[in-house]
Amino acid sequence: MVLRPPVEPMLARARESLPPLGAGSGQMAVQPKFDGFRALIFTPLREGDPVLLQTRGGAFMQDRFPELAAAARGLPAGLVLDGELAVLDHYNQLSFTALQRRATAGRNARALAAEMPAHFIAFDVLQRDGQELLDEPFARRREVLEALFANHRLVPPWTLCPSTTDAVVADEWLHEWTDVPGVEGVVVKSLAGRYRPGVRGWTKVRRRNTTEAIIGGITGSLHRPLVLLLGRYDTAGRLRLVGKTTPLQPGQAQEVADHLTAAGPDHPWTGVRFTASWNSRTPLEPVLVAPALVAEFSADVSQDHGVWRHPLRYERLRLDATEADVPPVGDRQ
């Protein structure tokens, strides 16, 4: 049976720590989780048909990545790969900002492709030679994927995602590889598992760090804060928004409310426009507060220019700390 696009990709459920990797039929494989765009690539079975590059949501964007579509012409016919799109910046580091720029390119897609070429990090194969492999165990699909790279001597823009069953190596990937921008954690997969489109049958573990920022604003009220808007100072001495927390628990809200002070007219965010979330256009009208309180929070490693893309988890107030103790914008701590 031939897979017809769009195909829902298999998904992962979040977990706080690495599960046991097991042995025998219950053994697990671990792969790095790259901070890119999930994508499936389809090579045509018939000459003249287009190469398709599908997003997680089922849209097609091969016109945004013409260099990948052209390179895919050299892959075997009737192939479907699952993986992650990534773009390197001028410092040769994975850059989500550069990737997003590529994904929203219009008429200048080819110019951007020459300036910042994309890479496809393949971690699964769903079809080979027009024969779907969804019911094959992951161990077998991995063998097929490795053979594809070895037999066809694939080089960039194609990259084979690393995979291990060694718990020590997996822990190293989670806690050391994530020091590099663009790697945010690991994904754990059963070697015996089949590919189930749309099902959260894998496990993802993001590395989380604990650090500090200044409370510059809130949603809700001074007596019942709901979400904290956290800032850090840049090298020019400006307080920059670096993230927003998840909604506070009642006890946390009371702890913060007991120490909040309304902002004065000289607050550095006076007149600044905020949005509800990263990369959102929905306006947010927070209550500004005196930027004197330091909050400790935990966060994953997904940042763009010092701004966290995912919500932060408030941990506690640092009443013993001042703004001088808070890392500057851009510090990955």
From TrEMBL:
Residue ranges of domain ATP-dependent DNA ligase family profile in the record: 111-238
Signal peptide annotation: none
Pfam families: DNA_ligase_A_M (PF01068)
Molecular function GO labels: ligase activity
Family matches, as InterPro entries: Adenylation_LigC-like (IPR044119), ATP-dep_DNA_ligase (IPR050191), DNA_ligase_ATP-dep_cent (IPR012310), NA-bd_OB-fold (IPR012340), OBF_LigC-like (IPR044117)
Gene3D superfamilies cross-referenced by the UniProt entry: DNA ligase/mRNA capping enzyme, Nucleic acid-binding proteins
Source species, domain of life: Bacteria
Keyword Glycoprotein: no
Catalytic activity of the protein: ATP + (deoxyribonucleotide)n-3'-hydroxyl + 5'-phospho-(deoxyribonucleotide)m = (deoxyribonucleotide)n+m + AMP + diphosphate
Keywords: Ligase, Plasmid
Recorded family membership: Belongs to the ATP-dependent DNA ligase family.
Protein name (Swiss-Prot/TrEMBL): ATP-dependent DNA ligase
Biological source species: Streptomyces glycanivorans
